[in-house]
Amino acid sequence: MAVQELIRTEADGSISFGDYKLDAKAKVEDFESSGDLYKVKTYHEITKLERNGMFVYESVPGTEVGHLSVDDVSMEFTVSGRTDAQITVQLEEDMEYEVFVDDFAVGGMRTNMSGKLSFSVELSEGIPAQVRIMKR
């Protein structure tokens, strides 16, 4: 996937961001896309994305995320990294979701009271994983 910038808007309107290969923290603030302002912080230890000052995505260790798109019933993106990552995303609070990684159902999960959902993804460098989270 290789995100050349720390964050960019793709032709389909989705967002790509992050760089797990950086040794030092880097960030971009006030990146405008489709009327929203994004902030990304990234390096090899963590990648974090905010939209309009609100949490959207975090991974430990850092990752590269491609084509992140969110609507009322789903969130989809590709994720790449050096090693397995713990990912936390912001969704609707106290709601049941089905998580798929590379079209394999990881299982049903419920968001907490703040709408956060956490799961792990097995990653190998150079091989992106496709993540799809669907509201039940």
List keywords for this structure.
13 strands, six-stranded antiparallel beta sheet, mainly beta, seven-stranded antiparallel beta sheet, 136 residues, Chondroitinase Ac, Chain A, domain 3
Give a nutshell description of this structure:
The chain is mostly beta strands and 136 residues long.
Descriptive account of the structure:
- By secondary structure, this protein is mostly beta strands.
- It has a single domain, classed as Chondroitinase Ac, Chain A, domain 3 (Sandwich), CATH 2.60.220.
- Helices cover 0% and strands 60% of the residues.
- It contains no helices and 13 strands.
- β7 and β8 form a beta hairpin.
- The chain is globular.
- The relative contact order is 0.18.
Question: What percentage of residues falls in helices of 4 or more residues?
Answer: under 10%
Class per helix and strand makeup: mainly beta
Please summarize the sheet with the most strands: 7 strands, antiparallel
Mean pLDDT: 95
Q: Give the termini distance in whole angstroms.
A: 29 Å
Individual helix count: 0
Q: Based on DSSP secondary structure assignment, what is the total number of beta strands?
A: 13
User: Biggest sheet, strands in spatial order?
Assistant: 1-2-7-8-13-10-11
For the record, the CATH architecture stands as: Sandwich
> Would you tell me which CATH topology applies?
Chondroitinase Ac, Chain A, domain 3
Tally of structural domains: 1
Question: How many whole angstroms does the radius of gyration measure?
Answer: 14 Å
Overall morphology: globular
- Any low-confidence stretches, pLDDT <50, length ≥5? none
